[in-house]
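Human:
Focus on the backbone:
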Amino acid sequence: MTRGAQISVKRVTVEALAVVLSILLAFAIDAAWDARNDRASEIASLQSLLSELQANRTVFEAGIAAHEGLRMRTKTLFDISRGVEDLPEDDVAMSRLHLRSFRSHYITDYRSGALNALLASGDFGLLRAQDLKIALAAWPTLVEDALENERMVSRWVEELLVPYTVETTPACIFTVPDPMLTSADYERCRAELNAILGSDRLEGLLAHKLWLYQSTLGEFERLRGSFDDLNGLLQRELAGR
């Protein structure tokens, strides 16, 4: 091989290596850029999930307080029906206790837009932590169990307790305070209400409502612990471990 041919071979080899190295470098740059974009997308998703989780935590805490208040009023009326307590002397208090205990229920305004969007998109695969992915996949079922208990209370109140209340409650209870009613009217109203409160039927309804509230509060308390666990996982990932 002549010296000129040797130089040509070396040049071709060097140029070929340069091309290969350029391609590899381009792939490396693309991979690094993609990884950077993926991490940015992951961080944005984590921040959205954390904001939604913290907002829902506040909503669920309000739900726990509301259900506990309704449970306590129902318990008071239940104790009155069993003769453990007496009706309040004040007619307005008597009316409010009755109406709120019977007809009130509460529905939590839970939001899941960020989680639903993540689960429905390909971005869920960008999450690197397997334990976080497992927790997020299980989260909708945990929430649904708690909300279904709440809806069960609502359906039971609307379909059974409210019709019973409308059928049996003295009309004056719904109009307190009413200047057209005399003290004698209220005494008669109180006597009628006491008779209703002493019925076995009402005692059974109130006992069942108490059980429903206790069951709902139990689900919410369990969910409270899951909130803390999921919050910890999200905070860990955002901190980059």
Q: What stands out?
A: The first helix runs from residue 3 to 81. Helices lie at 3-81, 91-103, 113-120, 130-168, 183-197, 200-238.
